[in-house]
Amino acid sequence: MSTSLKEIYFYPPALQQRNRMWYYNSTQWGEKHADRYMDSFYDALEEKIGSSYHRPFPKSETADITDEKVYYFHWKRKQSERRGYTVFYRIISKGNIGVIAIIGDGQDRDNRMRESLEKTLPHIEADQQKPQSKT
Fold it and tell me: 85: closest CA among 59, 63, 116?
């Protein structure tokens, strides 16, 4: 699925996790597998960009940190996989997505998301640094 006019940005906590995902897969199964794994992840993100529905994370969980609307979805490369990731993101101007956090199943999702959001806020609010893109 191609979203030529829209982009995916990764804020620092999400960028670190994305890089860890690729590294783990490359050391376990090789670089080609890691590339396919991440291609599948990007496909899911691109599907979210094209979607008209975005599942909001409960505002009560983030109200004391920010007024930003935070959305999320759960991703697994294959339905048969036991574990996946919860991806937290925000909608940026022109429908672009800013990925705030990527949190693996089994981790303390709510607290990890809050920590990531707190680390991301200076980048969102100051708007001095453009978040890094996927490339």
Answer: 116
What is the CA angle 76-82-86, rounded to 5? 40
Report how far residue 84's alpha carbon sits from residue 2's, in angstroms, rounded to the nearest whole number: 23
The tens-digit pLDDT sequence of the chain (135 residues) is: 444 567 888 998 899 999 999 999 999 999 999 999 999 999 999 988 888 888 888 777 777 777 778 899 889 876 666 778 899 998 887 778 889 999 888 777 777 777 877 787 766 654 434 544 554
For residue 68, with 0-12 CB atoms within 10 Å meaning exposed, 13-18 middle and 19 or more buried, which class applies?
A: middle
> How does DSSP assign the chain, residue by residue?
---TT--EEE-HHHHHHHHHHHHHHHHHH-HHHHHHHHHHHHHHHHHHHH-S---BPPGGGTTTT-S---EEEEE-SSTT-S--EEEEEEEPGGG-EEEEEEEETTS-HHHHHHHHHHHHHHHHHH--SPPEE--
Q: Cα–Cα distance between 79 and 33 in angstroms, integer?
A: 17
